[in-house]
Amino acid sequence: MANQEEKQAENKGFTVQDRRRFSPETGEARQDAPEETVGAAQSTVPGDQSTESPRASERETLPEINFSAFVISLSTQALMHLGEIASPVSGKVEVDVPVAKQMIDILGMLKDKTRGNLNASEDRLMEDILFDLRMKYVEAVKKR
After folding, report:
1. 107, 130 in Cβ contact below 8 A?
2. Is the model's pTM score more than 0.70?
3. What is the count of structural domains for the chain?
């Protein structure tokens, strides 16, 4: 009898369902993807009717992440370290010229590494931001 149960278990097998929303080959959304929302968490607390995680509403208000937004965020950090804008944490203007130089160098490296891969507006953005930051850096060094 145990032999019969083992044979039934061997024949039964299992089913694999691909729940990925994007095709691993192309990275594009699959047509047969499940209708679930990304990032939604099921509540495990009895009586809690919320199906969203606490940070889901925060994710909705964040700006789109693209190359330009990334470059602008790095330049904002450099401006903060140059003393051009206040720190969002402390609310005070703090100058840290070596860190600002490092941020400017990172942007310069990024420009070099992406040469030929940017569209015209991204390339112009990199040029303008680097020129502006380098001029502000020279002014900051003269003030020291």
Report:
1. yes
2. no
3. 1
Contacts within 8 Å (CB) and 24+ apart, 41-45:
none
**DSSP assignment letter at 85:** S
Q: Return d(Cα 88, Cα 59) in angstroms, integer.
A: 19
Q: Considering the domain boundaries, does residue 16 fall inside one?
A: no
The amino acid at residue 101 is: K
Sorted by sequence, the CB contacts under 8 Å of residue 74 that are 6+ apart come out as: 103, 106, 107, 110
Task: Give the span between the Cα atoms of 77 and 106, in whole angstroms.
Answer: 11
53 domain residue, yes or no: no
Q: How many CB atoms lie within 10 A of CB 71?
A: 20
The b-or-e profile of 37-57 (16+ CB within 10 A means b, else e) is eeeeeeeeeeeeeeeeeeeee
The tens digit of pLDDT for each residue in 117-142 reads 999 999 999 999 999 999 999 999 99
Instruction: Give the CA angle between residues 97, 100, 103 to the nearest 5°.
Output: 155
Domain that holds residue 127: 60-143
E strands within the chain? Answer: none
